[in-house]
Amino acid sequence: MDRGMWDQARLTWRLLKDPRVSLLRYAIPGLLLAYLASPVDLIPDLLLGIGQADDLGIAVLAIMLMIRIVPKLAPADIVDDHVRDMGWVGVVREREASASGQPIEAQFSMRR
């Protein structure tokens, strides 16, 4: 995992523990646990290696979805509190500047 993904995972973990965030934050972990506990599998676990690999793939997919979805479920002020506590001051300033209607300078490139 690169640094940005690791930081997003830390933010997601903090938001999962925060009682101010909607209870929907537990939907993906709950569905993952239900799938792993269920006797129904995409590939039966009797096929050693392959059967467990699909469970691992589903778990990784669920974690990646959580990292992307949970911060969007939380109100912006709660996310900003956690971002500030984690030391991501630049991200909060950027969001505040865009909310105030001031232009933000950025550089980008496009590839074909």
Describe the structure using short key phrases.
112 residues, single chain, 5 helices, mainly alpha, elongated, 0% strand
Summarize this structure briefly:
By secondary structure, this protein is an all-alpha fold. It contains five helices and no strands. The longest helix is centred in the middle third of the chain and has 24 residues, at 50-73.
Overview of this protein structure:
With 112 residues, this protein is an all-alpha fold. It has one domain. The protein is 64% helix and 0% strand. It contains 5 helices and no strands. It has helices at 3-17, 27-37, 50-73, 76-86, 89-99. Helix 1 (3-17) crosses helix 3 and helix 2 packs antiparallel against helix 3. The longest helix is centred in the middle third of the chain and has 24 residues, at 50-73. The mean pLDDT is 80.
Low-confidence stretches: none
Oligomer: single chain
Structural class: mainly alpha
Helical residue percent? 55-70%
Question: How many structural domains does the protein architecture include?
Answer: 1
The major sheet is characterized as: none
Radius of gyration equals: 18 Å
Topology:
Elements: H1 3-17, H2 27-37, H3 50-73, H4 76-86, H5 89-99
